[in-house]
Design goal:
The structure holds two protein chains of two kinds. By secondary structure, chain A is α/β, with parallel strands linked by helices. In chain A, strands 1-3-4-5-6-9-10-11 form an eight-stranded parallel beta barrel, surrounded by eight helices. In chain A, α6 runs parallel beside α7. Chain A is globular. The mean pLDDT of chain A is about 95. By secondary structure, chain B is α/β, with parallel strands linked by helices. Chain B has one domain: Rossmann fold (3-Layer(aba) Sandwich), CATH 3.40.50.880. Chain B is built from six helices and 13 strands. In chain B, the strands form two sheets. A nine-stranded mixed β-sheet of chain B has the order 2-1-3-4-13-12-11-8-9, with helices on both faces. In chain B, a hairpin with a 1-residue loop joins β11 and β12. The longest helix of chain B is centred in the C-terminal third of the chain and has 12 residues. The chains are: A alpha/beta, B alpha/beta.
């Protein structure tokens, strides 16, 4: 009896609407983040992550309203990422009802930013998101949606971010993201062993066995997936049952 | 007349989710996020949340002149502490090289350390973050309709160690068995976050809102 491994569906939000399909046919509006979040909650999601992919600053304001609406009706932890650059962005999301804020590029441009916001708001609400890609015999972090190399070693970076106060690491394999071929569990394992804080594995989930592998092979504390919950016929409940059947402790 | 529920705001952490969850179960009650000692004194029930480091929390409680208001409420009316709102009721925390707390109960707040290995062959992670089973150690109105060993959501690196073990209302295992909730008279306090614990959390909050001492 211990801590359950978490399953976290991730929703891409553009200008306040969920984009990419969601499989629920019997909800009024599959683009409404509140309806989608409520449904994932009913299915037993352990947390929900919103990734704001809005391009313009003006439309970015809408993500705060999305969080506000969801937070008043869905009572599980909510994480928001995408475009978080200043302490004011973090504060706005927390005030809207987010429990955690994910920081990615802004941490790369200015690592002290992570110290600043963990000091001010607490480690428990700061997730550092890392996009990593294999380069020769190691992994490097990339920014701009995986297009821009930084030359920074991903494992060393994860360790540094944990030292700077990150409460969790959300690690996405750019090699696997969108491929449905499973997590990069060598990468996951390397980071899981390097950091004392929880690891959320992301990128590449195409079937339920991949979730099991992320925990058992990759050493992840939580698994994040988008498309298998949106498009395929898998529900969160099925995913949890599958993990439980394979000996993983989950919240059923 | 609709009851008044004060959610004490001393500037530590996001209180929106706490107040929204209480509102969700509180019917026509007036739920107010407040640092006003007179509102807290007049409230029918008090929720005392909190996140962050012990020293910062104690400093913030002092700056808001809330020490006495919190202690008085904790002794006199239905009172629900959550997370740091549990920890600061103890005497002393190991956090920040030793921090004096409100001292309502004898006992310490200690960091998780010397932890066992997790089932993935890695040391257990700190913070303890996620859904763990809560074993009820005594029957209590706040456990009504909540199955024993239900999972609640936790986020913390420190745990309370009360001297008086009869305070312990629930325990959880994370490398070590620790106190997940305490209860005494009109007071109940949880290390976990009922406001983030889906249905069982809402049930606990509903039980609190309807708790008659």
């Amino acid at each position: 009896m211990g801590l359950a491994k978490r399953i976290i569906p991730c929703l891409d939000v553009d200008a306040g609407r969920v984009v990419k399909g969601v499989r629920f046919v019997d909800i009024r509006d599959a683009g409404d983040p509140v309806e989608v979040a409520r449904r994932y909650n009913e299915e037993g999601a352990d947390e929900i992550t919103f990734l704001d992919i809005t391009a313009t600053a003006h439309e970015r304001e809408t993500i705060a309203h999305v969080v506000e609406q969801v937070a008043s009706q869905v009572f599980i932890p909510l994480t928001v990422g995408g475009g978080i650059r200043k302490a004011g962005d973090v504060l706005r999301m927390l005030n809207a009802g987010a429990d955690k804020v994910a920081i990615n590029s802004a941490a790369v441009f200015n690592p002290e930013f992570v110290k600043e916001v963990t000091d001010r708001f607490g480690s428990q609400c700061i997730v550092v998101a890392i996009d990593a890609k294999r380069v020769d015999d190691h992994w490097e972090i990339f920014t701009h949606g995986g297009r821009k190399p930084t030359g920074i070693d991903a494992v060393a970076w994860a360790r540094k971010m944990a030292d700077y106060g990150a409460g969790e690491i959300l690690l996405t394999s750019m090699d696997r993201d969108g491929t449905k071929s499973g997590f990069d569990n060598h990468l996951n394992r390397a980071v899981a062993e390097a950091v004392p804080v929880p690891l959320i594995a992301s990128g590449g989930v195409g079937k339920l066995q991949h979730l099991v592998d992320g925990v058992q092979v990759g050493g992840a504390d939580a698994v994040l997936a988008a498309s298998i919950f949106h498009f395929a016929e898998y529900s969160i409940g099925q995913a949890k049952q599958y993990m439980a059947d394979h000996g993983i402790e989950v919240r059923l | 007349m609709a009851q008044k529920i004060a959610v004490i705001d001393y500037g530590m952490g996001n209180l929106r989710s706490v107040s929204k969850a209480v509102e969700h179960v509180a019917g026509d009650a007036e739920v107010r996020v407040t640092d006003d000692p007179s509102y807290i004194a007049a409230a029918d029930r008090v929720v005392f949340p909190g996140q962050g480091a012990a020293r910062d929390c104690m400093a913030a409680i002092g700056e808001h002149h809330l020490n006495q208001a919190v202690l008085r409420a904790a002794r006199t009316k239905p009172f629900l502490g959550i997370c740091m709102g549990l920890q600061v009721l103890m005497q002393r925390s190991e956090e920040n090289d030793g921090t004096a707390l409100l001292g309502l109960f004898a006992g310490e707040v200690r960091r998780f350390d010397g932890l066992a290995m997790g089932d993935n062959g890695l040391p257990l992670k700190i913070p303890h973050m996620g859904w763990s089973q809560v074993q009820q150690q005594l029957s209590h109105p706040l456990w009504a309709d909540i199955p024993d060993r239900s999972r609640f959501y936790f986020v913390h690196s420190y745990r309370v160690v009360p001297e008086d073990v009869s305070l312990i209302a629930a325990t959880t295992d994370y490398g070590v068995r620790f106190t997940a909730a305490i209860a005494r008279d009109n007071l109940f306090a949880t290390q976990f976050h009922p406001e983030k614990s889906a249905d069982v959390g809402l049930q606990l909050l509903s039980n609190f809102v309807n708790w008659s001492i």
